[in-house]
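Explain this record to help learners:
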Amino acid sequence: MTASRQLAFLTHKAHMCLASAESCQWSPSMIAVSLISLELEQFRSDWFPLTLSLLHFIQNLNYSELIGCKEAFSNHLLLSVQNTQQLTAQSCRQQKRVRHHTTSNSSKRKMVGPSPLEQDDIYASIKGLYGEISDDLADPAIVAAAIINED
């Protein structure tokens, strides 16, 4: 996962958490530390000392507040992911039902490839194209003129 994609994902999580009514209970710095702590917990084994150093950095050493905020946001994110998965599953089932009723054999298109004469024309064109390119590249004067004209 790229850094920009991870930041976008973290921003999306922050928006989801800030939209909840529970976010009014905590300071913005505590919300930020708890969200970063949730992310660190997924990717680092030493997430807890890093979280404690972040708490020390924001000059808030209330560990119980961090734990409460982190648990609330963890539950909120878990429920929102479950709801999203259920909605996705329902829409997929509805789309399958709609597709099942609307598709029939007459509405499907048959894929037809090029005829043998068209294939011969295609191959002849490709051979001619590569033949012209290789002739041009063999003449150093043409290559030098092309380089000078690019500038």
